[in-house]
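Our consortium's second objective concerns turning raw sequence data into structural hypotheses that experimental partners can test. To show how far this objective has progressed, the report includes one record in full. It was chosen at random from the queue rather than selected for favorable results. The single chain below, 272 residues long, was entered without modification.
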Amino acid sequence: MGQKTNSNILRLGLKTNEWKSKYIEKVPEESSFHIYQDVEIRNYLNRFFQLHGLILHDCKINLSSSTLNIFVSYFVTLKALKLLRNPISNNKLKNDSNFTEILLESLSQFTGKKISIFFTFSNLNTRLALKLSPENIQILKDIKMQLRQFTRASFFTETLNILVISIRKRKSSTLLAKLIATQLSNTKRHNFYLIFLKQLLVLLLKSELSMVNGVKIVIKGRFNGAPRARSKIIQVGNIPLQSFKAKIDYSQTTSYTPNGTFGVKVWICEND
């Protein structure tokens, strides 16, 4: 069935779907080595950004025997802002130069300092990353008013910002999946958060802000510390998983909580 397979792999090579990693090897035997390097680099970037309170939106890697080009887009969470305001906990987060120096030094040691590394960063918190018209801003204010019973919750602002980015920018399933995993780890009221998430998705996808046809979220775990795990499905809009013509962006991740782990899967169907 469609929900039991990786939708990204099935649609690679169709229409505009491309691999996020590209290798240039001199001999065929180098391809397996480049694949290994790509997996290790992605695991390191995911862990590094997570420790610094940043959520990866997209990561593209072009790798050859002499150069390594990495494009990274990310979202700055409240955790990252707290680290910046507390110089005692982490002095290396005072400016972006130290941040990039750590990344470059770590990757250069991993590659044996034989490869030239080039980073391109895109911060989704800036206004340049997502431009909204005055009409869309007014729509967003109306949605906030309809959800005013959740405004005191710690997750309200961050979830709203990331969901707006997810329905406006392509390839945003990873960002949404990691947001849900982070919030499930930080809150004990899982059901309360999922009620807010579904109501917000319904309002956003019915508005003119939406540039997607539908969103499907499947979460499995021990909600609110229940003795047994169960699954919850949130689906808004249309998700044609059996159709190759549909532009489906898929991502899955794991949330670690005191009561065990949660599996999070996200499908986003983009407009043509």
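The partners drew two points from this record. The chain is about 40% helix and 25% strand. The first strand starts at residue 21 and ends at 24. Both points have been shared with the crystallography group to help prioritize constructs.
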